[in-house]
Design goal:
Number of domains: 3
Function: RNA helicase.
Strand order of the largest sheet: 3-2-6-15-9-14-13-10-12-11
Shape: globular
Number of helices: 22
Family: Belongs to the DEAD box helicase family.
Keywords: ATP-binding, Helicase, Hydrolase, Nucleotide-binding, RNA-binding
Structural class: alpha/beta
CATH class of the largest domain: Alpha Beta
Largest sheet: 10 strands, mixed
Bound molecules: adenosine-5'-triphosphate
Helix content: 25-40%
Strand content: 15-25%
GO molecular function: ATP binding; hydrolase activity; RNA binding; RNA helicase activity
CATH superfamily of the largest domain: P-loop containing nucleotide triphosphate hydrolases
Protein name: ATP-dependent RNA helicase
Amino acid sequence: MTALLHPFSTTNSSSSMKLRVTTHPPHRALSILTGAFPFKLKYRVLSARPLKDYSCIICRSLSRGVAVHTSALSRGGGESRPGRVGQRKSLVEDGHEDKDEGGVRDMGRSRNGVSSESLKRRRVGNPRGLHRDSKDKEAGFFDGFSPQAKRGGREAIRVMEDVDDDSEDGVLSVEEEDLNEVVLKVAGSLRQLDREDGVKPRPSASADTAESYLSQTRFDQCSISPLSLKGIKEAGYERMTLVQEATLPIILKGKDVMAKARTGTGKTVAFLLPAIEAIAKLHHPDRFEKRPPINVLVICPTRELACQAAAEADKLLKYHPSIGVQAVIGGTRLTLEQKRMQANPCQILVATPGRLRDHIDTTTAFASRLKGVQILVLDEADHLLDMGFRKDLDRIIAAVPKQRQTLLFSATIPEEVRQICHVALQKDHEFVNTVEEGSEETHSQVRQMHLVTPLDDHFSVLYSILTEHIAEDVDYKVLVFCTTAMVTRMIANLLSELNMNVREIHSRKPQSYRTRVSDEFRKSKGLILVTSDVSARGVDYPDVTLVIQVGLPSDREQYIHRLGRTGRKGKQGKGFLLLAPWEEFFLASVKDLPIAKASSPPIGSNTRKRVEVALSQVEMKNKEAAYQAWLGYYNSNKKVGRDKARLVQLANEFSRSMGLDQPPAIPRLILGKMGLKNVPGLRAK
Ligand SMILES: Nc1ncnc2c1ncn2[C@@H]1O[C@H](COP(=O)(O)OP(=O)(O)OP(=O)(O)O)[C@@H](O)[C@H]1O
């Protein structure tokens, strides 16, 4: 059957796939039956550009729901509009661990290649490079690292700068490692993993679930250029995933798309492939042109994710020698990036928001190169549209042409984000939702459990869960998510004292270290990665067997994304959420998810003793920093932080759980900024 223009045209009524198409207004849905048979499509691509006609054959997968909504919301182009969501949130670039407050640091250092303006921005009242808006000033400085500020509250917006002061010793976090090498390294290990994946499927993945994320459509049935097809084949991809199948034809048509698909189901390729196809059809500027345009701009919230997306693009571009991808991320030398972007093809730029702003502010001719952007992609769009990123994003949107195609992808798109998507998207954008109606946003093959137990037991319970899991699966690969960077460091220290094979990753580590550890974890088995939320979204570590979340996740979305590090590509996985009794309220926000109540693992006196001894070995400065960070994190939580006296009691409970009967003293200045001066139970210094 031949259908013109839209592959999911309502004319395909004989199909057996249930499809929801929403036309104006955006939320009115029309259910239709569509086909499970191949049909030929012909459509014109990217109407704004002089492109060729394409034909493709699309087969529909049976009995899978894909909702495509055409929205009536409008795009504000470059305008900066106040968010209607009205929430503020500190889930910010490179994670939430900037919720940690490490005290005042040296502000007098100069940064190579960074403009005074951007330095100033970093410095506004903040030694760690956090910047804030005027409301922060009213709210008091360090009192909010805003885990749930998205839902409102008095906390200050805390936007962490792209360049972390990872360097504990006061040395700048300037990396010697060329990012190109990092990207190539990641691309290399991705290729290797893909090859291994093709040969040896993990035994734990049943044939049924392992295939569930794939559609019946093969890439070679679509109107993809032969060079891209070669790259796809080499990457080991044969069939499209559901989200790729659903979005490719729409994106190729040149429409703005907002797409929601579960974690680990190939969203990166879903936006990269049509973007590459669009560039392939453009006139290619002279290699030596002084200011060649950037055609595709991909924004990712974290450095790891940006490197990963650039590596994926690099894989797909293998047979497109004239198209190049570059990544610009914080924690690396700005001047190196400038040289690289000048010396190499850079039609695709993958960036973290803060670093991109730095380039807009400081890099010669960068702004004019951005005028060539035809496709803007926001990966983890709900996170990027959140208030924590809003200023950077408004700036970025203002820097790219209004006449462009915009693609928003995420595994979670809360309703409030749909309400504000007009800041980036065209009025007639399509909303593609591959999460079937009535089904959960998490994977059914991932077993989720929660345990509510006193804080005092948390470390012993964590140790027990880990030892049990390790005993069950020699190929264990575990992610332990912690609330802040400093809590991450302390727990990693503890587990390592317990002789577990542990690595840690968070924003207070230098970027070269982060890249190394991330790469190691990607390739390893028999390893535990203790992490802050820098690993929560998008990071594609294959074969993670268990995700443990210790303490309150910042919100429902973050719970889903963290959990989504396991069960990728249809594989099996487990998730464990460990909460204290006063954190139990969080369960209400995920009550629609199948999270079973776990029974408390028996904690013998031996286990307790071992944990106690290990805690006594944990460095005091790590415990002190963890205490302060913990206090900052929960202080900014709307619910927990409301009653300051109670908050301090709980913090001191946390202190005791680390083996410190007397809570560490906190600098007066910081207590003041947290709004915790003179709260009984705190020690000031
Ligand atoms: N068509 C395909 N066939 C097989 N594997 C694929 C295909 N497309 C992508 N993949 C692989 O699937 C894995 C998950 O992809 P990706 O990281 O893009 O997922 P995601 O949906 O963006 O996840 P998240 O929501 O966590 O960001 C990657 O290893 C990627 O290489």
